[in-house]
Amino acid sequence: MKNLLEAINAEASLGATEADITAFEGQTGLKLPESLHALYIQCDGAILSQGELKILPLATIQEQMTGVHRWGFLECWGYFPFTDNNDSNPFCVCCHAPLIGYIVQVPHDDTAAIKFRSLDSFLAALQQFADEDYWDLHEMPSEFEGPDRTAQDIAVGRELLKMAPEMDELEQRDALRFGMWLLSEPQVGEITPLLEHRDEYVRDDAARRLAAMQSSEASQALDKAKNEMRRFVQQCAERLMQAGIKATVIKEVNLRLEPGPVWLNMEGLYSRRNDTDFYDFLLERSRSLLAQKVRK
User: Fold this and answer.
1) Angle between helices 34-42 and 18-28 (to 10 degrees)
2) Which listed residue, 74, 167, 281, 292, has the most CB atoms within 10 A of its CB?
3) Distinct helix (H) and strand (E) counts, the chain
4) Under CATH, to which class is 1-138 assigned?
5) What is the Cα–Cα distance from 99 to 165, expressed in whole angstroms?
6) So what's the pLDDT on residue 182?
7) Is residue 28 within 8 Å of residue 22, measured between CB atoms?
8) Taking the mean position of all CA atoms in its chain, how far away is CA 189?
């Protein structure tokens, strides 16, 4: 840890005491992983001398925890927001199992993304910016963009997928998305069912995860999912036409209604495709949107 801080030219504050850390844990309900404990014993905050990026001191993080909760960030992963770009999109060390020690970026207006497997690997990634005048954390590629995974990554990924069905909607979404990015190419078969998930954000991440793989199995799964969407859009168009609503398929996966034009959210509709009343809903929704267009 010390060598990594030196490598990124960090101007470190004096370390926290064991009493400081114990008090922080008691007040926030977080148990610091070993890596975080070691960092804050060494330095209770740091400034990177080539820029304005800061590793926040415990007192500042404690003040911000109320803000984190107010913004609706999930507490189930035990987020410890230790740094950001002064843009309220913190990088957080997870303090709760099974993600203990992993680093997730938690944007205030986008979905969270798992980025690094450890604090050490995050600090090591910063070294490439050591000579830059400004440090933009968004330019750091995720450690999980490449194909390499550890046995721990795979075990944690599988645990997340296993626990997801018992979680509420938002927690489940993150569990599935984090889990699939921790799995590797040999686990393609564990990821492909998520291409049919009810949550369109989960489907989107599953498609991006499989697209990053090189295996023919991943490509075939993506092709099948695309064909299913094309078939779904065509079926919707046919049902609408039968009901007297002019519907035109555009570029195979978009549906335009006339007069209007009115564009349907096909990804959102696809999420409801297995509902017993789906086609009744489709007709009602289409008529409502067309009526709104006419009134305007």
Assistant:
1) 130
2) 74
3) 12, 10
4) alpha beta
5) 17
6) 98
7) no
8) 21
Average pLDDT by stretches of 10, the chain with 296 residues: 63 90 93 94 81 83 70 79 83 96 89 93 80 70 93 98 94 96 96 96 95 95 97 97 97 94 96 96 95 74
Residue-range domain boundaries for the chain: 1-138, 144-214, 229-295
Could you tell me the sign of the dihedral formed by the alpha carbons of 49, 123, 56, 139, in that order?
positive
On the 0-12 / 13-18 / 19+ scale of CB atoms within 10 A, 95 is buried
Buried b (16+ CB within 10 A) or exposed e, 181-195: bbbbeebbeebbebb
Q: What share of the chain is helix, strand, coil (3-state, %, to 5)?
A: 55, 10, 35
Tokens of 52: 């304005």
Tokens matching residue 195 = 């291409």
**Separation between Cα atoms, residue 29 and residue 66, nearest integer Å:** 12
Q: Which amino acid is at 138?
A: H
The token pair at 148 is 């390499």
Residue 95: per-residue pLDDT: 96
**pTM for the whole structure:** 0.89
- The DSSP element (H or E) to which 283 belongs, if any, is helix 278-295
State how far the Cα of 147 lies from the Cα of 166, in Å rounded to an integer.
Answer: 29
Which two structure tokens, joined as six digits, stand for 118?
């450890």
Tell me the two tokens of residue 87. Answer: 């843009």
Rg of the chain in Å (alpha carbons) = 23
Residue located via tokens 């006419």: 294
87 near 138, Cβ under 8 Å? no
Q: Which tokens in the block code for residue 90?
A: 């913190």
